[in-house]
Amino acid sequence: AHSANQISAGEVVERPASVVKELVENSIDSGAKHIDITIEGNGVPLIRVRDDGSGIGITDLPLAVIRHATSKISQIEDLNHLQTLGFRGEALPSIASVSHLEISSRPVDEAAGLSLTLHGGEQAELKEIGCPVGTSVTVRDLFYNTPARLKFLKSTPTEFGLISDTIGRIALAHPDIAFSLTHPQQVVLQTTGRGDLREAIGTVLGYDIARQLIPINEQQEKWHLEGFISPPNLVRSSKQAQFFMINGRIVRSPILSRALAEGYHTLIPVKLHPVVVLHLTVSPSDYDVNVHPTKMDVRFKEEQALTQFIRETVYRGLINSKP
Ligand code: ADP
Ligand code: MG
Question: Where are the domains of the chain?
Fold first, then answer.
C-alpha cells in the first residue's frame, strides 16, 4: 500500500541530511522565526525539528502525510510564481513511509495541539496534546523498513557533517531566522536570527573569515546582488565555501560560479576559490526553475547580461576595497 511512497522516499529522502532539509524547509515555509533541530547519532535514531511557525490546522494534520496533499499550490501555473520552498507534497509522506514519525502541531488560533503518530506510513494514533504554537516533527529509526538504504549510510561523523552543512547553508540563506542544532545534548550551531548576514557567516564559517569579507550591494534595474565576497588572499582549494541564493533559495549554479570566477580573474590562481555568500534577487519572470526533489536547475532569460552584471559587481567590489 505504501510502495509509491517508499519509491518516492528514495528520491526525496536519500539520507538523514535530506530529511533534515525537507523538515526545515517546511518550517521556513510556515513562517517560523525560531527553528531548533535535534539529532541523535547519524540521524537514524532521531531527527527532531521544532518551529514556532503557523502550525498545521487540526483537520489538515492527517492530510499532511498523504501524498500530494501540499497546501502550497492550487494550480500548476503557480509554479512560475513559487515563493515557498516546498510544493510537491511529497516530503512528509515519503519520510513517514520509512520511519516512525510523530508530528505535533498547534495553530495560533487553537488552545491545544494535536499529535499524529505513524509507523512506516500507517497511522497509529491521533490525540490532543498540550504544546506551544508551532510544529514539532520527530523522525525515529529512519529507514528501519528499507535495509538497503540503511546499509548505504556512512558513519556518524559523515552523516552528521552533512546535516550540519545543510543547516549552515540554510542559516546563510535565512539570517532572519534563529537556528539551533543540537547533537547530542550539545548546541553545535546557533544563529541569532537578527538578520545580520555577516554575523550569520561568522557563526557558520568562522568569525575570522567573516571579519575579512568585503560587502557587496549592487542594485540594477532587474537584479540585486547583495552579500559578501572574500579578498583575493582569502581562498580555498574547493568551492565548498561558496554560497549562492536566488530569491532566498539555495542554488548550485554553474552560471553564477563562472561569473564569480571571472570577476576574480587574474586576482587569484585558477585552482583556488574565493569564499562568497551572495544573495541574488531577480524577477521570477526572468528565470526558469526546474525543480527536482533534491536539486534546482536555474536558467536565466538574459544570462549574458546577468553574468556580466555579477562579474563587474564582484570586480568593482574587489578593486574598491583595496586599501
Ligand atoms: P510540501 O512542503 O511540498 O507542501 P510536505 O510533504 O513537505 O509538502 O508537507 C505537506 C504539508 O504539511 C505542507 O504543505 C504544509 O501544509 C504542512 N506542513 C508540513 N510541515 C509543516 C510545518 N513545520 N509547519 C506548518 N505546516 C507544515
Ligand atoms: Mg515540504
Answer: 3-190, 209-321
